[in-house]
Amino acid sequence: MRNIKLVIEYDGTDYCGWQVQPNGITVQQCINDALGKIEGSNVSVTGAGRTDSGVHARGQTANFFTQSRIPAEKYRDALNSLLPETIRIVSSTNAPENFNARFSAKRKTYKYRIRNSAVASALTCRYEYHCPGRIDIELMKRACAYYVGEHDFNAFMASGSAVKDTVRTVFDAHLDVYMPEIVFSVTGNGFLYKMVRFMVGTLLDIGKGKYEPEYIMMLLEPSNNLKAVSAAPAKGLTLESIEYESSGNGAI
Amino acid sequence: MRNIKLVIEYDGTDYCGWQVQPNGITVQQCINDALGKIEGSNVSVTGAGRTDSGVHARGQTANFFTQSRIPAEKYRDALNSLLPETIRIVSSTNAPENFNARFSAKRKTYKYRIRNSAVASALTCRYEYHCPGRIDIELMKRACAYYVGEHDFNAFMASGSAVKDTVRTVFDAHLDVYMPEIVFSVTGNGFLYKMVRFMVGTLLDIGKGKYEPEYIMMLLEPSNNLKAVSAAPAKGLTLESIEYESSGNGAI
Fold this sequence. Notes:
Two copies of one chain form a homodimer.
Chain A: E1 2-10, H1 27-39, E2 46-47, E3 56-66, H2 74-82, E4 87-95, E5 105-115, E6 129-130, H3 137-147, E7 149-152, E8 167-178, E9 181-188, H4 195-207, H5 215-219, E10 237-244
Parallel strand pairs in A: 3-10, 5-6
Antiparallel strand pairs in A: 1-3, 1-4, 2-3, 5-9, 5-10, 7-8, 8-9
Helix pairs in contact in A: 3-4
């Protein structure tokens, strides 16, 4: 059995998220269906991140096993010829046998795009959250720093998740400002259900003066039993990239 | 009667072009309908450029007359609250009585986006033409220069147009290259039916080695009776801006 790694870009607008579900078309389902046609049997790809409905990806990563003799790099064009144009396989390569797109992942990077202008853009509205009015960007930049480090992010997890261990490490969190566009980038070893959207919603509340930047420290202190209340909408979020170890231990 | 000028951005993907037509939803129709609700009577806006189905705009310009006492700048938000999110009024301002968005226009700028990569992008496929394979960009840059000036662009006009005077002046035509994206920008005093798309299609044929750059000179010589044969698809094209004279004679 060979193990094939896929890097995938998609526009999440018209999909019910990544993961296969009984009702609604998902990105994983589309890829499974296309692979099934190529392989002549049922295949299920494993994805690194289970993005929600409306969330986009530039570097989602997945893997699957095959007994075929099709060269790894041929899967890219074969899949693209069968997939809708809003899902593209960026690359398909051989991976070590023990590579698992989900469990071998070391770092994930998400970006969240905000448009801070009076009028939304007709051309980019699928990919950004329109947030008019005064926002204090310096306060938001200061607030970002409080996210960095190993913390219990339970306050930033949406209810409905079965996850028990809510400690995650955020390696980097910062804002890039290209007015009227503001881009929040965050890299971590993993993210809880809707965590990035709650991080952004809280940042925007800080930018609007609802909280001080230091409020993030309070949210990250488990004994305070606080919950973030504002989740930014899905459409501004993009899974940018997944990083794996460059050698050894099932990573590539 | 007051004359109101609108600057309009739209994603043309889901519209049958700008101009009202019996079958299919058009951008002009959407704006007329929204204005009709505000005014309480039928209104028809005059647009500067009649973009085709699938063509986008960042700076389409239109005007309409009103007897209402609504301040000009209030139309922006009032219209945006009624329009689909893929059509946005960027600004609404008072214009001189003799301003006509179409006939007062002095210069129009279009941009055409090409993606020269093996795989198309899922995230930008609505706004660019995916053109894989080797393209000689230096040849295309050289070719652009031949478009500049006053020429008979009859060879670049699609059949089906009733226009008789096919002489137009191109003030600027150039390529900006941000690989894998290539952007063709062209500014002129007016454009014939599908003219920009034939200009781009011809440039790409030159980039692929089908013609020499000098072939454009031959197309522009009416006595040769030649016609450009390749029109690039609509979705890569955006009407970027319309310029008017800054003073006098019906312009603003």
